[in-house]
Amino acid sequence: LVEVLVVMVILSIGILPLALVQARARAEVQEADNYTRAVTIAQRQMEMVKGLGYAAAVSDTGMTDGVTWRTTVTDPDMGLRQIDVEVIFNQGGEPDTLAMTSLLSMR
Fold first, then answer.
1. Which among 43, 46, 44, 95 has a CA at the least distance from the CA of 66?
2. Rounded-to-5 percentages of helix, strand, coil across the chain
3. Cβ(83)–Cβ(50) below 8 Å
4. Rounded to whole angstroms, how far apart are CA atoms 45 and 22?
5. What is the DSSP string of 31-44?
6. Exposed, middle or buried by CB within 10 Å (0-12, 13-18, 19+), for 68?
7. pLDDT (tens digit, 9 = 90+) per residue, 10-44?
8. Torsions phi, psi for 99 (to 5 deg)
9. What is the pLDDT of residues 67-107, one digit of tens each?
10. What's the whole-model pTM score?
11. Residue 61 to residue 99: CA distance in whole angstroms
12. Which of 7, 34, 46, 107 is the least buried, fewest Cβ under 10 Å from its Cβ?
C-alpha cells in the first residue's frame, strides 16, 4: 500500500508540470491566432488601398471580425502617397496594436 501511495505521489508530481505546460501552450496558440488575424486584416486593407491606385487611395476605418482597423493615406512628397494601416485587436484581454506602412507612387 505504501509503494502504491509513493508511486501516486511521484506520478502526480510529474503530471502537474505537464498540465501547466499544456495550459500555457494553449494560451500561446490563442495569442498567435489573434496576431495572425490582425496581420491578415492589415494586409487585406493595405492591398485594397494600393489596388485602388494613386488617385483613388483614401483614408478609411472599419471593423472586421471584432477587430478595428484604420487606414490613413498621406502625401509625404510630390507623387508619393504613404499608406498606414493600424489594427487594434484583443490580446489576452488587453487591446494590442499592429501597424503596417507602405508607399504608393504616381505612375
1. 95
2. 50, 35, 15
3. yes
4. 35
5. HHHHHHHHHHHHHH
6. middle
7. 888 888 888 889 989 999 999 999 999 999 999 99
8. -120, 140
9. 999 999 999 999 999 999 999 999 988 999 999 999 999 87
10. 0.80
11. 14
12. 107
Cell of 101: 506602412
Residue with cell 509503494: 3
Sequence-separated contacts (24+) of 96-105 with Cβ below 8 Å: 96/34, 96/35, 96/38, 98/35, 98/38, 98/39, 98/42, 99/42, 100/42, 100/43, 100/46, 102/46, 102/50, 104/49, 104/50, 104/53, 104/54, 104/57, 104/80, 105/54, 105/79, 105/80, 105/81
* Residue-level length of the chain: 107
Helix ranges, the chain (H):
2-52
